[in-house]
Design brief:
By secondary structure, this protein is α/β, with parallel strands linked by helices. It folds into 2 domains: 35 residues; 322 residues, no CATH class. Helix content is 46%, strand content 9%. The strands form 2 sheets. It has a 5-stranded parallel β-sheet, sandwiched between helices. A two-stranded antiparallel sheet has the order 4-5. The longest helix has 25 residues. The protein starts with a helix and ends in a 5-residue tail after the last helix.
Length: 358
């Protein structure tokens, strides 16, 4: 091996050792914060996917407390409750989070337990089995949240459809030691990526395929998975199958666990804003909504499934946006509407359980 080759391999090993050390250091809790942009949540998850400056719009922060008409503003933070000490369980994804359940507890004084689904196809029955939950006389309701895209894309799939033989290894190296810590979320590298992505967007119209549907005036980005769920064909048989599955979940929760399911289907951001061609300068045209949510609601009514209808409220809302422009989640206004409707449904179900007085 000549001198040039030895130098080349030496530099190669040195760079590799540095990258490996940086990954390990970025994974360690006490040092990870130094390698991560402190503003990574400020501009929304869809901006972080695109890294195009035209979409660098500050995301609205959730208010300290949701203001719901007819409810006093409670400022005390709720306590943490175990699953057996709760009266209401909340199960869902990132639209609920700890914030929503905590606000419900503050507004009602009802002990709440929160659980986030690990998998997109997970159901409340799956979660309760995994938690080894036993029927409790104290817990009476399970608030089940899903976004509109979840039943449209995943309700006919199972865990086997998503399983990978190297899933544990992938989760360890990708989720725990992700290159995002050193690249897109690194303070220096993210600026360089932002400059490059903005240039490519301005010059060639290039943008991440994960957010390929957007408006620049005013700025608005949609997650591509959400757009796909709106565009997938949904005939009547498909919708009736989804309603049957939700009704089956409702029955199992009632018969096996003594829980009444309260369903919250959050409309897709694309459903609410993606067809407003007169208000936005979209990079697409000709798409029309297929009425998925109203059609599904009609089938749920036939099966006596308790749910809140957010579609009409969101579509008719004129007091500002209900979702962040550059994030896939709702903002405080959208959450306040959902909370109001949930409290109404919860109150109706509570009144139905009251004993009849003569």
């Amino acid at each position: 091996m000549d001198t040039r080759t030895r130098i080349f391999y030496g530099l190669y090993l040195l760079v590799g050792a540095f990258c490996l050390a940086a990954l390990v250091v970025s994974w360690m809790p006490e040092t990870a914060g130094r390698f991560i942009r402190q503003d990574r949540y400020k501009y929304g998850d869809l901006y972080d996917l695109s890294m195009v400056s035209h979409f660098k719009v500050p995301k609205e922060e959730y208010p300290a407390h949701l203001q719901v008409p007819g409810r006093p503003l409670v400022v005390d933070a709720p306590a943490e409750h175990s699953i057996v000490d709760s009266e209401v369980m909340f199960m869902g994804d990132s639209f609920f989070g700890k914030y929503f359940g905590g606000q419900f507890e503050s507004l009602t004084g009802t002990p709440v337990y929160m659980h986030w689904f690990d998998k997109v196809y997970e159901t409340p029955v799956d979660a309760l089995e995994k938690l080894h939950y036993k029927r409790s006389p104290k817990t009476r309701y399970l608030v089940y949240e899903r976004t509109e895209r979840t039943p449209a894309l995943y309700f006919y799939k199972t865990a086997a459809d998503y399983a990978r033989p190297d899933e544990k290894l992938r989760k360890y190296f990708i989720d725990k030691m992700s290159l995002e810590f050193l690249v897109t979320r690194n303070p220096v590298a993210s600026r360089l990526i932002g400059i490059r992505n903005t240039f490519r967007f301005d010059a060639f119209g290039d943008i991440s395929r994960l957010c390929a549907h957007y408006s620049t005036d005013p700025p608005m980005i949609f997650l591509e998975e959400v757009v796909m769920s709106n565009r997938v064909k949904k005939d009547d048989r498909f919708i009736m199958g989804i309603a049957d599955k939700l009704a089956e979940t409702d029955r199992t929760l009632r018969d096996k666990y003594g829980l009444k399911m309260l369903l919250v289907l959050v409309p897709n951001k694309f459903t609410v804003y993606g067809y407003r061609y007169d208000s936005y300068n979209f990079n697409y045209s000709g798409l029309e909504y297929d009425g998925f949510l109203p059609r599904l609601y009609a089938e749920l009514d036939k099966r006596d499934v308790a749910y809140i209808d957010l579609y009409d409220d969101f579509m008719g809302h004129e007091g500002g946006l209900l979702y962040s422009r550059t994030d896939s989640h709702w903002n405080g206004k959208g959450m306040s509407i959902a909370m109001s409707r949930l409290l109404e449904l919860y109150g109706r179900e509570e009144r139905r359980l009251l004993p009849v007085t003569r």
